[in-house]
Predict the structure.
Amino acid sequence: MKIVEFSNFSFSYDNGNYILKDMNFYVEEGWCVLVAGKSGCGKSTLLRCINGLIPKYYKGRYEGEVLVDGVRVIDYSMSELSKKVGTLFQNPDHQLFMFSVEREIAFGLENLGLDPSDIKDRVEWALDFLNLKDLAKRAPYELSEGQKQRVALASILVMRPKIILLDEPTSLLDPKTSLQLVNLLRNLKEKLKVTLIIAEHKLELFSPIADRLLVVHDGSIKAYHRVKEVLKNPSISSYGVSLPPLAQLSLFIEGFKEPSLTIDEMMKELRRFFNDRVS
Amino acid sequence: MFRLPHSFIFSRQDSLIHRLDIRVKIIIFIEFLILSLILFNIRDQLTLLSFLGALIFLSKIERRILNSLAFITFLMAMIFILNLIISKEIIISLSYSLRFLLIILTSSSFFQTISPDELEYFLRLLRVPRYLRFAFISALRFVPLLMLDLIQITDSQRARGLELDKGNIFKRIKNRIPILIPLIISTINRSSQMAEALETRAFNSTKKDVLCLNLNFEKRDLIFLFIFFLPSLLTVGYYYIIYP
């Protein structure tokens, strides 16, 4: 089932140049879509079109349609949309408002006017799911960047959205914490069947969990396919997308069927490659 | 180093006072503030100061208070000297200085022991609308972030050769303009991003005022209320019953 669909969609802020041009693509429920492209290509604008900030918060020339769960974004109210789409921003400090982790997680549910007993149950679940129980009473601003990111994610998950948008989620994280975030997102995808749309430069981190890779250049879609299919395209690097090192290596070696995204895949390909040579 | 602003920011501690019900803390605060303003006798002021000292000690915030004491003492000395010049009475001048000390210590212990969550709860009891409560809470929430921004901007400007501590007072104020402008811009950017995040979390989408925070009034609160109401009882007893 299509959960997000862009058809003939274009957008420009304040009637200036088009930031997004003639976009046509869809995302199936449960997919993880990686949006790549160089800075300023329109990745964040694309996410804003899905979470409704465009056109409800940012005005401009809005042409075509964006559908979320079969309904046009413009037909949703922000509160209705916030139940379907959660957004994790680049800097978690900008989305953590309360003075304790548990109050932070409850904040969105209070905004929806849910029953306090229901809120408590959901907060408990989120604390448990994201392993935040020990931090429940701590102030979000006292936490490390990785912990803040988890709290921000918990505060989104607790609203039980079908789609989670992540705008460069690892930009403030160290490599180890970035990997932990990737594993967490894999867990979300597998256990909760949440659709993930991630705008990110670091393809090597997210491509192993991504179902599709969307390459955006100057507001237009240059490629949208399975990650390995897109990476095979030699022109991809001209759009500001740097290929993951493993993929680069596997494309370099003649005889490799497709680019490897993980060490395991690389090892498998290497074994197959050498076995073929020996036989 | 002057650390007065730190004495007015909530300090997370596991203390008896921090655990008290917000209503008790508010009553004690109002009581101490009124007594600080009306007591003029040095003996009475010192009695109140000893109660305040106990309150600070039980709150485990004495270190922060001590850190700001240098600046408070400086202001007290200024008040004392000015009053001495005007009134030429040492006792009156001393009493004014003590009044200032009592007001500062009372407000400082209030802000350090009441968490913004508790304040929100209290404001809700007063039927303050949710959006106004949020404005108040987020103003408090962003103080540490603004301070962090200020440090980062100051460091980066210093690294570019900005001299902040050179020249007379006017020059020093002028030198701070390159810090102020980026700070204002970064604050505006932060507000815009915050507004985006609020929109995506359904802020102000319903008229229902839900606050998932329950604070209970316990026996311990009643005991503390009685103990810290003693200064008022003593004042009333002394001035209206024993020596009316």
